[in-house]
Amino acid sequence: MNRRGSDCKATEAKLVVSGKMGVGKSALVVRYLTKRFIWEYDPTLESTYRHQITIEDDVINMEILDTAGQLGEDSTNQWEGHVRWGDGFLLVYSVDDRESFENIAQLKNFLDDIKKPRNVSMVMMANKTDLERERIVSTEEGEKLAQDLACAYYEGSALLGDGVISEALEELCREVRRRKMMEGKQRRRSSSQQVKQVFNRVLTKIYS
């Protein structure tokens, strides 16, 4: 499952897969990691997986948290812990379940409350496109919500195993990498400014 990367320092990406119970979160993650589809999952279990990929010659060490259940009064503290832990978030709904679609905006609001909007790296994923006859949420609705939430949008099927799952998770890794690079530049700039301030104070004392 893991690939040997180069000698350069890898980017750590902690990814949280969230969504209403039954939308196929576990099926998506397992399909991505093993290329297999498993029909039955225990919805009360949470699992964490490690995986390594290379994007644009950069090694990414992924840690994927497949969350159990859904956001609610009884699970708020647990979800807050997940949000604080995560670097990026894959929010999943099922095209045959409108409530799961409407739950995405609630999840995004929760992320914003904990992480603040500018710190949220997020991708939206519509699952179960193989159920076209049972489809309730259109592609256009999904695209419109993603536009409103300012995030990338993908739709696919864990059952069919199309390449969209890989595209969605790897785009999320790119978002995490970009944000970490920006934060690193800001920290270096801040550190440089602090050094200059200390140096100027020393010079002021010397010549005063």
Automatic annotation (TrEMBL):
Keyword Hydrolase annotated: yes
Protein name: Ras-related and estrogen-regulated growth inhibitor
UniProt superkingdom: Eukaryota
Pfam families: Ras (PF00071)
Main location class: cytoplasm
Keywords: Cytoplasm, GTP-binding, Hydrolase, Nucleotide-binding
Organism: Branchiostoma floridae
PROSITE patterns on file: RAB (PS51419), RAS (PS51421), RHO (PS51420)
Any Gene Ontology CC annotation: cytoplasm
